[in-house]
Amino acid sequence: MPFEYQALAIMTLFFLFAWLPTSVGKWKAFGFKWLASNRYSLPGQELPFWAQRCERAYLNLKDYFPAFVVAVLILGATNQFDECTKWLAGIFVVGRMIHYTAYALGNVPLRALSFFTALFANLFLLVKILF
Questions:
Q1: Which pTM value belongs to this model?
Q2: Reported confidence tier of residue 57, pLDDT bands at 50, 70, 90
Q3: Which residue in 27, 1, 5, 11 sits closest to 97, CA to CA?
Q4: Is residue 38 part of a domain?
């Protein structure tokens, strides 16, 4: 299997479980009963800051993951995988995982660096489709 598809599979697994830290934060802050309910607002109660950051990191991942999926699938369908796409797919995966972790830990410089690294890797993958 081409590395790009493996990177897509790894990213998909990461995506499928990236919601978990936020849910743990909600469970600790509001309890299981609230977590299993329709999730009405609790006046005066907030999610811990780390869980808020995890939630924003997950939302950001949801915004940027689809473009990676499209890029990898189109590149694969058009037989355009090469050494460059292998590196770019790997950079995207590592960048997004670092971004999520840095976001959760509140490390803004690392978060920004990893975000833009992954973004540019994905943009280059998408541009490769056109040229």
A1: 0.92
A2: very high
A3: 11
A4: no
